[in-house]
Amino acid sequence: MRPTTIHTGAWRYPGALPDANFNFAHLKRFAQTLERAKFDAFFMADHLAVLNMPLDALKHSHTVTSFEPFTLLSALAMVTEHLGLVATGSTTFDAPYHVARRFASLDHLSAGRAGWNIVTTSNPDAALNFGMTDHMEHGERYRRAREFYDVVTGLWDSWADDAFIRDAESGLYFDPEKLHVLDHKGKYLSVRGPLNIARPIQGWPVIVQAGASDSGRQLAAETAEAVFTAQSGIAAGREFYADVKARMEKARRARDHMKIMPACFVVVGDTVEEARAKRARLDSLVHYDSAIASLSIALGHDASRFDPDRPLPEKIPESNASKSGRQRAIELAQQEKLTVRQLAQRLGGYSGLAMVGTRATIADEMEEWLSSEACDGFIIMFPYLPGGLDDFVEQVVPELQRRGLFRREYEGKTLRENLGLPRPANRFFETRKASA
Ligand SMILES: Cc1cc2nc3c(=O)[nH]c(=O)nc-3n(C[C@H](O)[C@H](O)[C@H](O)COP(=O)(O)O)c2cc1C
Q1: Which residues contact 370 (CB under 8 A, 6 or more apart)?
Q2: Are 270 and 290 in contact (CB under 8 A)?
């Protein structure tokens, strides 16, 4: 949800709520709508800095600012009962003791609905907000993340599930035999423990990963129970799925204990033409200055000199920017015969996986992904709010339910139970059986 839509033109769409990212009444309504539709979770991303884009691009966007995730999710925990609450927590800019206690607290407050999206933080500007001048090197970030995960999960296991006896008669509040002091001293981190919070309701909040590089995939295979991905096509989705599940097996984990979910932007219409028109209208609301800055970033070349109403020039000088991002932009323009303006507005809005059509065509596409080992579920991104959310919930969810692809009722009480994930054993103590 981010906490509102990712599309930078969304706040200008007719009927949109431009202040929704700081208006709790609206956010509460979105969360409750998601829960009525039996969504697994509300996911709140976090980047620890405003996005690293030129101000000319940023100044037109509502996505530039948002609530701090734990404060928002704690409030949402009080107005929902089943909806999972997943937040990003950085392994580069945070301390494991802080992270362990925040997620443990959220898990207790929400009666077992918390999830931790482990990121190494992709935005280099975050370093400047934490007393550093440079972003830590990528490989180093992931090595630290692996150790960080061990420490956080170790801290969650500080107390046996039955450590707190609370025997008023004898005066014994907890059994000291059921307390473990982690005493971690590693390459990057030094944490004594124990955590000053009882073991989370879920044992551990659900572990989520969103890395895509080789190190990201490997960390996911070893640790993640849900993986958020950003593939834009089904072939790339299948490649990622096969690769990460195979790595999981090598790490001696059951394939089923990880759910892979691509981020998917969904625009619903009564006809395919209507859905496309909605998207075109939405994209046209991305301010041109912001759109052209996004295109320049993708191409690694100043696009503001191109004629906005003609196709992309044939020859664009090579640059040191992302080669795959540049190629994707050029292919998109060719495939959909977009002018420079339209391409820029598409990139400035959302250029990843999108399903734009009717309830039936969207359900068909999702079914194809789900039935061909391309994913286990989706991170749904709504084009604009509240309309895009209401359309999805009223039209696509019933169609998915009718096809047996989506639940009609929550399976359990905790996020783990709803996702079909086991409750992890406490590595230091015997635990009661998973989701008994
Ligand atoms: C759905 C999704 C959500 C993400 N959320 C965050 C986030 O909240 N904070 C962040 O710093 N990075 C976020 N990322 C970026 C990833 O953590 C990761 O840095 C990126 O996918 C590149 O992979 P790599 O770091 O393995 O190269 C997200 C990625 C995806 C696909």
Answers
A1: 376, 377, 405
A2: no
Ranking 51-55, 113-117, 376-380 by mean pLDDT, the lowest is 51-55
pLDDT digits (tens, 9 = 90+) for 338-374: 999 999 999 989 989 999 999 999 999 999 999 999 9
211 CA to centre of ligand 1 in angstroms: 6
CA distances from 340 to 120, 221, 291, 348 (A): 34, 40, 10, 12
| Of the candidates 80, 73, 7, the residue with the CA atom closest to the CA atom of residue 44 | 73
Q: What is the pLDDT of residues 205-234, one digit of tens each?
A: 999 999 889 999 999 999 999 999 998 899
Are 46 and 73 in contact, with CB atoms under 8 Å apart?
no
Q: How high is the pLDDT of residue 294?
A: 86
Judge if the beta carbon of residue 322 lies within 6 A of ligand 1. no
Q: What pLDDT is stored for residue 320 in this prediction?
A: 67
Nearest residue (by CA) to ligand 1, atom 6, is 45
Q: What angle do CA 30, 209, 106 make, to 5 degrees?
A: 50
Residues whose CB is less than 8 angstroms from the CB of residue 329 and which lie 6 or more positions away in sequence, other chains included: 295, 298, 299, 343, 347, 351
pLDDT of residue 131: 92
Whether 231 is in the pocket of ligand 1, judged by its Cβ within 6 Å, is: no
pLDDT average, residue stretch 151-160: 98
Q: Is the CB of 51 under 6 A from ligand 1?
A: no
Measured from the CB, is residue 264 less than 6 Å from ligand 1? no
In terms of Cβ atoms closer than 10 Å to its own Cβ (0-12, 13-18, 19+), residue 33 is middle
- Ligand 1 centroid to Cα of residue 72, in Å, is 20
Nearest-CA residue for atom 4 of ligand 1:
210
Nearest-atom index, ligand 1, CA of 209: 17
Give start and end residues of each alpha helix (H) in 110-188: 138-156
Tens digits of per-residue pLDDT, 124-142? 889 999 999 888 898 999 9
Ligand 1 pocket, 377 CB below 6 A? no
Measured in Å, residue 403 CA sits from the centre of ligand 1 at 31
CA of 399 relative to ligand 1 center, distance in Å: 30
CB of 203 closer than 6 angstroms to any ligand 1 atom = no
Give the pLDDT confidence score for residue 298 in this predicted structure: 87
What is the C-alpha separation between 426 and 434, in angstroms, rounded? 11
Sorting pLDDT into bands at 50, 70 and 90, what band is 435?
very low
pLDDT at position 276 over 90: yes
**Ligand 1 pocket mutation pick from 68, 209, 228, 350 by most atoms within 8 angstroms of CB:** 228
